[in-house]
Amino acid sequence: MRLIISSLAALGLGFSLGTAQADDIQKGKNLHQDNCISCHADMVGGDGTDLYTRDNRIVGDYDHLVRQVNNCNAQLGTNWFDDEIEAVVAYLNAEYYQFDE
C-alpha cells in the first residue's frame, strides 16, 4: 500500500513540476515580450527573434544563455529577480535553443 501511495505522490509531483515549468516559460515569454523584443528588433530587424536563430549567434550553451540574460538584465536595468531571470532563460531555451541544463 505504501508503494502505491508513494507512486501516486511521485506522479502528482511530476505533474506539478511540469505545470510549474510551463508557468515559468509563460512568465519568461511575457517578460521577454515586454522588455527584450524592441531592443533585439533594433539590433537585427524584423521581430528580433533572428538574434537567436542566426548562424553566428554567440550563445552556444546553457550557461552562456544564463550569462547573456543576466547581461541584458544589467544593460536594460530591468532589475529582475532571480526567478524572473530563470523564467526568461527557460522560455528562450524551450523556444529557441533546447540546450541541456
Brief digest:
With 101 residues, this protein is mostly helical. The protein has helices at residues 2-35, 37-44, 50-53, 62-76, 82-97.
Mean pLDDT: 85
Q: Multimeric state of these chains? A: single chain
Please outline the major beta sheet: none
**Total number of helices:** 5
Share of residues in helices: over 70%
Structure, explained:
This protein is an all-alpha fold. Helices cover 76% and strands 0% of the residues. It has one domain (25-97). The protein is built from five helices and no strands. α1 packs across α5 and α4 (62-76) packs across α5. Mean pLDDT is 85; it is low at 5-10.
Q: Main attributes?
A:
mainly alpha; 101 residues; 5 helices; single chain
Present the secondary structure layout.
Elements: H1 2-35, H2 37-44, H3 50-53, H4 62-76, H5 82-97
Helix pairs in contact: 1-5, 4-5
